[in-house]
Amino acid sequence: MTPPPPPPPPPRRRMLAMPAVCPCEDISPGTLLASLATLSADVADGCDVDRLPALRGGVGVAVRVAGLLREFLEEVRWAAAAELPGGSVLGMSELHVALQKMRFLLEDCGRKGARMWVLMNAEAVASELRVVLGSVATAMDVLPAGVVAASDDAREFAALVSQQAWRAAVRPDEEDSRAARSVRSMLARFRSGATPDAEDARLVLGRVGVASWWDCSQEVSFLEAEMLERLEAGGENDNDLVLISGLMAFLLYCRVVLFDRIDYGKADEPAPAPAPRAASYLARINPEGLQCPITLELMTDPVTLATGQTYDRASIKRWVKSGCRTCPVTGEKLRSADVVPNVAVRGIVEQLLLSSGVSLHEPSSKHRCAVDKTASPFGAAAAGGARLAVAFLVSKLCRGTPEEQKKATYECRKLSKRNVFHRACLVDAGAVPWLLHLLSSPDASVQDNAVAGLLNLSKHPAGRRALVEAGGLGLIVDAVSVAAKVEAQQNAAAILFYLSSDAGYCDEISRIPEAIPTLVRLVREGAYRGRKNALVSLYGVLQRGAGGHGRAVSAGAVAALASLLPGDRDDLANDAVALLARLAEQPAGAAAVLSSSALVTRLVDFLGASASRSAKDHCAALLASLCRHGGDAVVALLGKTPGLMPSLYALIADGGAQGSKKARWLVNEIHRHYEQRQPPVAAPPAGDRVIRV
C-alpha cells in the first residue's frame, strides 16, 4: 500500500496574525480534551527558548505554562476517562483558542529570517503574549469543577497553571532593549549619512543570532517579502514600512561590509531530513511529473486551471496574457482564466527540495507589481544605509582583489533584483562602467554576476543611459556570443531587449555589425530562454530602429524563425510569427519569406491552428504584407491554399481590431483577383428579352 503524501506546508502567515479556529459546538468533550493535550504538548516542546533572538524570559514563562497545562490535561484524561461534564466544552474551547494563539506567537518569535524584526517589535510581541496568557488563565478559571477536581494532582496542576499565567511578567529582556536602542542609534547615523561602528553592529547581530552572510541574507529576504506584501496590498502609507526598510538597509550594510565570504547556506548544518514515511514517499516521486508542461521547469508556484491541469503560475499567466484561451495540455477552451493554488504539489516540491538541502523561496513573480513601488526609499535611514552599502560595493568593484570583486558583483546582482531605488543608487555611484569592465573577467561566475547585475540595472532608464554612454553596447553584444555561461549569454540578450525600448538605442544596436547576426544565431541555436530573449530583442530593434531589416534577412533570420513553426513551444512560435510579420513589412523580408512555398503553407496552417488571438493577428498582417509586396501572384497562391478562407472568416468574426481588418482586406483581395480572371459574360442578342431578378 502506497503511503499518502506528506502534508503540504501552510501558506505564509503575516507576523502577529493569529488565525485561531474555535472548535465546533457539538464536539465531544473527550475529543476536545485529546486535541488540547496534543496542542499543549506542541507548544511546550516546539520552541527552543535559548535560540530565540529576544523575549527569552517571557517565552520561557509561556513554555513553562504550556508544560504545566500538558500535565494537567494528561491527568484529567487519565482520571476522568469515563465521562466529562457537558459544560466543560465551553471552557476547553476557550483554552483551545488561547493555545492556538500562543503557538502562533512562539512560531513568530522563532521564525527563520525574522530575528531582527522580533527584536525591534519585542514590546508588541510581549503585549500579545501577555494577552494570550491572560486568556489561558481566564479559561482555566471557568472550567467546571468536574474537570479541575478530576483528581488531587489535577487540582494542583490547575492551580499552578492559573497562578503562573496570571502572574507572568512578560516584557523584553534588558539586553533586548539595549540591542534595540543600538539599532535605532545606527539608523540615526544612516539618516545623517554617517557610517555606523562595525563593532556595535556585530554585537547586535550576535545578540539575535545572525552569525554569517547567509543568516544576514535570510533576514533581508524576510523583510523584503514583508515590505512587498504590504505594497502589493496598497499599504504605501503603512507606518511599519519605515522600520522595515530601515532594518533592511542596516542588514544589507552588514551583509556587504561585515561578511567577506558568501556562504550559500550553512555547510556545517545539514538540511533537515524528511520523516521516514515522507522519505519513502519521495523516493517514489518522478521529478518530471513536477515540471511545468509549458516551460519544463520545476513548478515552484503550482496552480491549477479549471481543466484540472497544473502549471507554474508565471508560465500560465504569460500563456493567457499572450492571447491563448485554451488549456496547453488538453486543448480545451478556457471559460475562465482563474487559477487555484495547488498546495499539494507545492508541498511535494518543497519536500523534494528540502531533502536536497535547498529551500523553496516565495516566487519572485508574486511581487512583480509591487517592485515598481520601491522607486523611493521609505525613510532617510533606508536611503542612507543603501547609499553607504552601494559606495562600499563600487569601491570593491574598482579596487578590490579578485575575490572581493567576485563577491561585489554578486551583491550588486542581489541588491538590484527587486528594488528600483537600489538600482538608482548603483547607477548614481558609477557601478555600470565597472560591471562592464568585469565582463572580460576570466572567472565565469564574475562574468555571470556582472551580466545579471547589468540586466537588472538596464530595467532602470538611468541604467540604460549609463550603459550606452559608457560604450557598453558592443560589450553586451559580445557577451551574447562569448560569455562563459549559457545563462550569461541569455541575460545579455535580455539586456538588448530593454535597450530596444528606446529608438535611439535601437539605431545604435543596428549599427553594430555583429549585433543582429548574433541575435539571429541565438534564435537558431540557443536553448529555450536564449531563443525567447533573442526573439523579443530582435523584435524591439526592428520595431524602433531603422535599417535593421536588411541585416536580419541577410543573417538568415527568416530560416531561423521558420524552424520554430509549428514547434513544441507555442510562445516561441507566436513570437516567430510576430517577427516574420515585422520583417515582411519591407520588400527584402517579404521576398525571403516567399522564397519558401513550404513556409507560406505553414503560415496558413498556423493561422487556423493557433489558439492565440494576437498570434492570429500577426499572421494575418504577415500574409497581407506578402500580398502587397508579391502582387497578384501571391494573392493567387493564397487563394489556392486549402483552409485559408475559413480561417480568415473566423478571424473577421472573432479576431482583434487589427486582425479583423487585415483578414477582411485579404478576403477582398482574393475575391477581386478571381473576379478579374472570370471571362466576360456575353451580351444577349438584341431581340431577346432579358429578365432581371
Features of the shown structure:
693 residues; mainly alpha; Herpes Virus-1; three-stranded antiparallel beta sheet; 35 helices; EC 2.3.2.27; ubl conjugation pathway
Question: Could you characterize what this model shows?
Answer:
The structure is a single chain. This protein is an all-alpha fold and 693 residues long. Among the domains are: 29-172; 286-356, Zinc/RING finger domain, C3HC4 (zinc finger) (Herpes Virus-1, 2-Layer Sandwich). It is built from 35 helices and 3 strands. Strands 2-1-3 form a 3-stranded antiparallel β-sheet. Helix 5 runs antiparallel to helix 7 and helix 20 packs parallel to helix 23. One of its GO terms (molecular function) is ubiquitin protein ligase activity. InterPro entries: ARM-like, ARM-type_fold, Armadillo, RING-Ubox_PUB, Ubox_domain, Znf_RING/FYVE/PHD.
Shape: flat
**Distance N terminus to C terminus?**
80 Å
Proportion in helices? 55-70%
Strand order of the largest sheet: 2-1-3
Number of helices: 35
Low-confidence stretches: 1-11, 266-282, 357-366, 688-693
Tell me about the biggest sheet? 3 strands, antiparallel
Strand proportion, as a percent range, falls in under 5%
Averaged pLDDT? 84
Structural class: mainly alpha
Rounded radius of gyration (Å): 33 Å
Instruction: Tell how many strands the DSSP assignment holds.
Output: 3
InterPro entries: ARM-like, ARM-type_fold, Armadillo, RING-Ubox_PUB, Ubox_domain, Znf_RING/FYVE/PHD
Catalytic activity: S-ubiquitinyl-[E2 ubiquitin-conjugating enzyme]-L-cysteine + [acceptor protein]-L-lysine = [E2 ubiquitin-conjugating enzyme]-L-cysteine + N(6)-ubiquitinyl-[acceptor protein]-L-lysine
Keywords: Repeat, Transferase, Ubl conjugation pathway
GO molecular function, one term: ubiquitin protein ligase activity
